[in-house]
Design goal:
The complex is a heterodimer of chains A (112) and B (117).
Chain A: E1 4-5, E2 10-14, E3 19-25, E4 32-38, E5 45-51, E6 56-59, E7 62-67, E8 72-77, E9 86-93, E10 100-102, E11 106-111
Parallel strand pairs in A: 2-11
Antiparallel strand pairs in A: 1-3, 3-8, 4-5, 4-9, 6-7, 7-8, 9-10, 9-11
Chain B: E1 4-7, E2 10-13, E3 18-25, E4 31-37, E5 44-50, E6 53-57, E7 64-70, E8 73-79, E9 87-94, E10 107-108, E11 112-116
Parallel strand pairs in B: 2-11
Antiparallel strand pairs in B: 1-3, 3-8, 4-5, 4-9, 5-6, 7-8, 9-10, 9-11
Classes of the chains: A mainly beta (112), B mainly beta (117).
Chain lengths: 112, 117
């Protein structure tokens, strides 16, 4: 049973526009959420995280929003740039644990 | 230095071979991880070492044997693998969170692409 779900396998966005990647989770014990970006033939790179005590965290062009009641989080990238084309993984964990659970990923294509 | 290095980058081995994957980090991280990733799938956790002790084994077959010789090194010894074990093997490290009520982000290496023939 998937505890972290990314229901969109792929997403295409025009360069300069906003990219919104969505993630849902089922385990109410999760209290820390992360987004990773992965290029082909490379390991995932940490992008941004959010603790369950917050509903928003911003870092430059990247903002993560958390809606605990809906068990939903989203990653906003604005403005989108060609280098943002990659696979984005949503991940979640329970504090007190070194283990993080990954979603299946969403492939983002930034169109010129 | 925020890099996790892995060697080799590519490995082809037969089902009777014994080989090892190596991972190294010099960030002072005390938690290290092995993941397996198949094409178009998320990374799947295999093992976690925390303070050089095995803390999590996700029911991985015994043909995979992890080893943590010191806080900077992590090995994965491979023996009698099956073709379905072909995958990208990722190493990661983080500040250890176990017992600290904090989760830290993990830094990943580039992976070793393993092909079992």
């Amino acid at each position: 049973d998937q505890q972290v779900k990314q229901n969109s396998p792929s997403l295409s966005v025009q360069e300069g526009r906003i990219s919104i990647l969505n993630c849902d989770y089922t385990n109410s014990m999760f209290d820390y959420f992360l987004w990773y970006k992965k290029y082909p033939a490379e390991g995932p790179t940490f992008l941004i995280s959010i603790s369950s005590i917050k509903d928003k965290n911003e870092d430059g062009r990247f903002t993560v929003f958390l809606n605990k009641s809906a068990k939903h989080l989203s990653l906003h990238i604005v403005p989108s740039q060609p280098g943002d084309s990659a696979v984005y993984f949503c991940a979640a964990s329970v504090n007190r644990d070194d283990k993080i659970i990954f979603g299946k990923g969403t492939r983002l294509h930034i169109l010129p | 230095d925020t890099e996790v290095t892995q060697t080799p980058k590519h490995l082809v081995m037969g089902m009777t071979n014994k080989k090892s994957l190596k991972c190294e980090q010099h960030m002072g991280h005390r938690a290290m991880y092995w993941y397996k990733q198949k094409a178009k799938k998320p990374p799947e956790l295999m093992f976690v070492y925390s303070y050089e002790k095995l803390s999590i084994n996700e029911s991985v077959p015994s043909r995979f044997s992890p080893e943590c010789p010191n806080s900077s090194l992590l090995n994965l010894h491979l023996h009698a693998l099956q073709p379905e074990d072909s995958a990208l093997y990722l190493c990661a490290s983080s500040q250890a969170g176990t017992g600290a009520y904090i989760t830290y982000e993990q830094y990943f290496g580039p992976g070793t692409r393993l092909t079992v023939t």
